Amino acid sequence: EAGVTQSPTHLIKTRGQQATLRCSPISGHTSVYWYQQALGLGLQFLLWYDEGEERNRGNFPPRFSGRQFPNYSSELNVNALELEDSALYLCASSLEGAYEAFFGQGTRLTVV
Amino acid sequence: GENVEQHPSTLSVQEGDSAVIKCTYSDSASNYFPWYKQELGKRPQLIIDIRSNVGEKKDQRIAVTLNKTAKHFSLHITETQPEDSAVYFCAASWTGGFKTIFGAGTRLFVKA
């Protein structure tokens, strides 16, 4: 069974640009979570999508947004990139209502 | 707001010794407490979890204890091995895992 897959694995952008990160959950999982992991720091909750809707978001500015498609894959968009947005962005998926979440390998975003 | 504090941030032990990582959470509604292990360059992987109706859970060399009254839970690794070296994250969540709040992580070094 394929795990959670994320693309691209690395992304380099210039300050002010927009970045789009993609996530494909495990087959059958309807919930997708996005986390930011800055270098040397912990995991910060960004967004939770389930059944195509945003269910909850963490303490991040509105320029962090996303969506979930009918096939449950998800996209994270970061507008007006700032240097401090450089981080590993992890996606996780779970069955709706289930406890355990499975992580993807992450997308390392570098803003220069 | 919700918060999970994790200590220590770094832990160095000799192979064969025990390691203990402690976490404290703020939201009394939390009812699910997973622990993740993240090896260098890899995705976080769930290693053990505990639900609020249980005080202790053990899986081979790993055990987790939960004190709901004091709002803290701990990870215990016995007979540590070099391959236990990684960053360990505790987390607290509720209602199926949305908006899981992670601790800052503990970097464990096991010296051979």
Rg measurement of chain B, Å: 13 Å
Q: What's the average pLDDT of chain B?
A: 91
Main sheet characteristics of chain A: 7 strands, mixed
What order do the helices and strands of chain A follow? EEEEEEEEEEE
Main interface by residue count: A-B, 27 and 25 residues
**Gyration radius of chain A, in Å:** 13 Å
Percentage of residues assigned to helices of chain B: under 10%
End-to-end separation of chain B in angstroms reads: 41 Å
Main structural class of chain B: mainly beta
Largest sheet, strands/sense/barrel of chain B: 6 strands, mixed
Can you summarize this structure?
With 112 residues, chain A is an all-beta fold.
Write a structural description.
- The complex is a heterodimer of chains A (112) and B (112).
- Chain A is mainly β.
- Chain A contains no helices and eleven strands.
- Chain A has strands spanning 5-7, 10-13, 19-24, 31-37, 43-50, 53-57, 64-68, 74-78, 87-94, 102-103, 107-111.
- In chain A, the strands form two sheets. In chain A, strands 2, 4, 5, 6, 9, 10 and 11 form a seven-stranded mixed beta sheet that branches. Chain A has a four-stranded antiparallel beta sheet with strand order 1-3-8-7, with no helix packed on it.
- In chain A, a hairpin with a 5-residue loop joins β7 (64-68) and β8.
- The radius of gyration of chain A is 13 Å and the shape is globular.
- Chain A starts with a strand and ends with a strand.
- With 112 residues, chain B is mainly beta.
- The chains are: A mainly beta (112), B mainly beta (112).
- At the A-B interface, β4, β5 and β10 of A face β4, β5, β9 and β10 of B.
SSE order and pairing:
The complex is a heterodimer of chains A (112) and B (112).
Chain A: E1 5-7, E2 10-13, E3 19-24, E4 31-37, E5 43-50, E6 53-57, E7 64-68, E8 74-78, E9 87-94, E10 102-103, E11 107-111
Parallel strand pairs in A: 2-11
Antiparallel strand pairs in A: 1-3, 3-8, 4-5, 4-9, 5-6, 7-8, 9-10, 9-11
Chain B: E1 4-7, E2 10-14, E3 19-25, E4 32-38, E5 45-51, E6 56-59, E7 62-67, E8 72-77, E9 86-94, E10 98-102, E11 106-111
Parallel strand pairs in B: 2-11
Antiparallel strand pairs in B: 1-3, 3-8, 4-5, 4-9, 6-7, 7-8, 9-10, 9-11
